[in-house]
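Side project, low priority. Logging it here so it doesn't get lost.
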Amino acid sequence: MAETFDSILGSKDLDVVMVNLLADKFNALKEREGKPDVRENTRAIKRLFKEVPKIKEVLSANKVASIKIPELLDYVTLQIALPREEVEAAASGMFDRIGAPIENALAQAGLTADDIDLVELIGGGVRTPKVVEILEQKLPGKNMSVHLNGDEAMCFGSAFIASNSSSNFKVSQIFMTKNCKYSVKMKISPLDANETMSVEEQQ
């Protein structure tokens, strides 16, 4: 068995790529000529981040997404057709990193792709066609199976492991040991630097 990962690569990285792509398209509109970058407006950027998950859902099943964000800024509406291939091109640097954990896992286990019989996909990546395509390239001839609800499987697993570590919940003991190979940290930064709280205010 083997376990590898890219600890700083996830769906939020794709969100950032798409927000920047949409921002560039909005800035390029004739109505925005000579005006400040939309990224300077916190409220507009928040709206783009809110819209991106919906756009990703459409692009997971369609090659083109029709986007309309009314009056995004200065009463100007962003209305465009966004091809999936354009998003994939913009996020190529991110997608290029997906193959490394697969290769590392096989190397750790002393296996080759020919030794793998079945691949079970879980998590949100299963809804990103480019991710599935890369997996199929790295593991040719293997069926990318989805027998489980990937989102539910991960949520239930996390919940059971957490409940076993808590004295507040009484559930059947799940005998599973998970030794995390990396530290988990969280840093929350406001979009507007002026809203930053001091250490004293956070306590």
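Brief comment: The domain at 11-92 is CATH 3.90.640.10 (Actin; Chain A, domain 4).
Revisit when time allows.
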